[in-house]
Specification:
The complex is a heterodimer of chains A (about 700) and B (about 300). With about 700 residues, chain A is an alpha/beta fold. Chain A folds into three domains: about 1-115 and about 190-260, Rossmann fold (3-Layer(aba) Sandwich); about 360-580, Rossmann fold (3-Layer(aba) Sandwich); about 595-680, no CATH class. Helices cover about 35% and strands about 20% of the residues of chain A. The longest helix of chain A has 18 residues, at about 205-220. Chain A is globular. The relative contact order of chain A is 0.09. Chain B has about 300 residues and is mostly helical. In chain B, α10 (about 220-255) packs parallel to α11 (about 265-275) and α10 runs antiparallel to α12 (about 285-310). Residues about 1-35 of chain B have low confidence and may be disordered. Classes of the chains: A alpha/beta (about 700), B mainly alpha (about 300). Chains A and B meet through β1, α2, β17, α17 and α19 of A and α1, α9 and α10 of B.
Chain lengths: ~700, ~300
Amino acid sequence: MSKLSAEMAGGTPETGSDSPALVVSHMDVTYKVRDQDRLALRDVSFSIARGESYGLVGESGSGKSTAALALVRYLPRNGRVSGGTILINGQDPLAMGNAELRQLRARTVSMVYQEPGRALNPSIRVGRQIAEVFELAGQSSREATQSAQDMLGRVQISDPARVMRRYPFELSGGMAQRVVIAMALAVSPSLLILDEPTTALDATVEAEVLDLVAALRQEFDTSVLFISHNLAVIAKMCDRVGVLYAGELLEQGPARQVFDDPRHPYTVGLLRCIPRRGQRKDRDRLDTIPGFLPSPGHTLTGCVFAPRCALAQDRCRSESPPFFDVGDLRTARCFYSDQAPELPRATPSSAPALATDGPGAPIVSVEKLSKTFPGGVQALAGVDLTVLRGETLGLVGESGSGKTTLARVLLGLTAPDPGSVVTLEDKPLNPQARHRPREILRALQIVFQNPDSALNRRHSVRSLISRPLTRLAGLSGAALRDRLAELIASVRLEDRHLALRPGQLSGGLKQRVAIARAFGARPDVVVCDEPTSALDVSVQAAILNLLADLQQQEHATYLFISHDLGLVRYLSDRIVVLYLGRVMEVGPAETVFTGPHHPYTEALFSAVPSLDGQRPDRIRLHGDIPSAADPPGGCVFHTRCPRRLSTGVCESTEPPLLEEEPGHLIRCHIPITELRQLQLNEPAPSQGGSA
Amino acid sequence: MTDTSADAGGAAPLEPGEPFSSLPGAGGPVLIVATPQLVDRARWRLLLSRPTFLVGAAIILFWVVCAIFGKSFAPYNPLAQNLLANNAGPSGAHWFGTDQLGRDVLSRVIVGARVILIVTPLATILGTVLGTALGLVMGYFGGATDLIVGRLIEAVLALPFVIIAFLFVVAVGSSTGALIVIIGFVFTPLIARTVRAAVLSERHLDYLSSARLLGESSARIMFGEILPNIMPTILVEFTVRLGYAVFAVATLSFLGFGVQPPTPDWGSDIAANYSGLLAGYWWQVLFPALAIASLVTAVNLITDSIEQVLNA
């Protein structure tokens, strides 16, 4: 593998004399399932130079977590490395005895996983848990406690002494992940493995944790293996990247180049699935990747991606392609990598002709909508909002901002506080769904986030989709059969799916069933509550296209809730930004995105890593969302606002939601002209410390 | 339209970045869990491949045959007295010996299976049906309903089983029907509590919200939506209770609350003959007791197997 050694040399070794932090060559990983060997990773080779950050990116089932576990021999009992070699700092973990392996895990390699809550012992104080790591490294109890406190300071926890005494469940997700990172770095490992470390966190917290990891990497001179399904996060964090698909590494190279100019058809397809800046549902349809991931343990001859590849020739199906050098220290496992950029689209790019009527009169409106849960948690505080017929209203905000509560109140699943008014076409709605007439139930429907939870797993697809038709549309007999056929065709399911139960379908198909259920009775307004957040990128694109098509066909109004601003921008006509149950900004999507915008909106936008890499990081929020049971006085955002005024007005007075431009409302003491100046010119001062 | 099949595979139905459960290696077993059909073919095969299940089923089948056809192949008439040959130990003529009245113990054990095999399943079914309904109501409505019914259940559970049975027999007299009702009634609150807990773990799932948005009635949501999902729990609870019911029937018969002599019955036969133990007539008690033990063991073997297969 001369190419491989060329890559190693091409990294950025800071201690040239030493061996690389990690060398994996021709690694196979096998799981034994029901006495059959299934290859989960095959012929995976990559290396990480000292101080380098390497990203492994892939969809679910690609084997990226398996790779991480295999490196430190954490595979479950039925898994083993069945071929190839691993060298960590020149040592071979596969040849180690138990004692050596423990030493390796204790001193040389550290891992950080997705769920910080599950990595910490809930019944031991945080300080003790970190100190334990130092004690294992040979420090005395007192030294270890001091080291633990210092370490918390280094992961930018502002009051380490206080956090030391906390139990893990008393910490927010972002704080807990910092503690885990502190533990991981406590022993100054030479290799840090991060497996989806920010996937469970909010965008602003994610940005902060990513910044922290980047800074610590410099400080500790640690090599990093960063695993994620999120291409933008990898693009931001990594020097080099490997694209994993069905257990094989398909493309490798410097991150920037791979994402700007991909050379493998899979990478090309994957990147086209993601809505980019400037793309809109009414102009550009997202491309998709046809077909599906080979089942685990597949025995394909030839290229693993060939069955889904529009460029595949006979040769691809019979002969497994080796890594080809495609320049700039890049390799791609494709015979036709020079043609990859011209991969034919799987979905035509032109959007269906837009209905000309456009957004119409208000269809749903809420006034003075508040919801206080027992315990004084105010999820919504005086929300005024109007949804126009035929539009897509995007609802964005961090977790705890009240997005989902707002949707549930509209649907009648959660009763709002007395005094709140919810109307549909100017008729006030009963707060409880069970008291609403059938016609109202028909008009308002929802696509839930997680189809596993939203579909009754004991019902067949046929009964799941038929039920709304009989209940709400009052169909039976031939009319029911016709509408059912029409419906499954429009969500692109097939007849053979009707007899199956949800558990027998993939995530994307399940979500199609959920969408068919929501659209069955031809609703006027459909709430989409994070409808693609449980899905893979390539599946997400198909679902987004479907939602856009259905809106066209059915003239439906969408209330689209998402934490993914890229999606919101792609789909929405107008956007509402919520923070602590209050509307901070409302306006047409492009206006809100391009600004001037509310400082919170600005922070949300700059927190999201972008594949395009054009947007400079401008402002950062620190700390966590304050408790909704005890919101800050004055402007609720003042505790985290990087543009807080020095006059003290932000702390004392809640600003009104003012219409600064036609249709564009902002809740901020800073006038829009001034916001425009601020946001054009200078990045906001970083607010020191954290919660 | 080419995007139709973009996700048509069943290959990776899990979210990215999930730990162990989403590993390809775990893909097989995960898929089985993901198809929660109570009696699918794979589960049957798994059940039938378990030796513990087969042994349990064989023992129960044996007693069922005894209960139905026992009279025709029992060596003697179980009611025929022979005072000349009473209290005889096991021998070639009487394998299990004879009792105080000279009746053949083996024949009485064989024919005596009938009462217990009728009462046990019927009582358990009664308790399971009532308990499931009550548990669904408590779990689904929650709040005041749950509180009031919950306290009532605790009050009933606080009374000793035998006291309840005694009060009932005093009121309606002793009969096979009374046994069924007593045991069913006593099991109801126990099963209700298990079902309630199972309902609570379903209650936060969105399919219930989805059903409410279709304007479904509470009864339909409880019995059409929730019930199918908690059937595995109910099935396991049923088999566990079945084991207890064998004991309960035997206990009540022993205390004289069940069928009356001279009808052969394991519990009442032990009661009728246990004074003979002091005189060394151990066979009169041991063999009916072994019969009870074998039935309880068999039911528990089956319970374990079902539980393990459902959780596999």
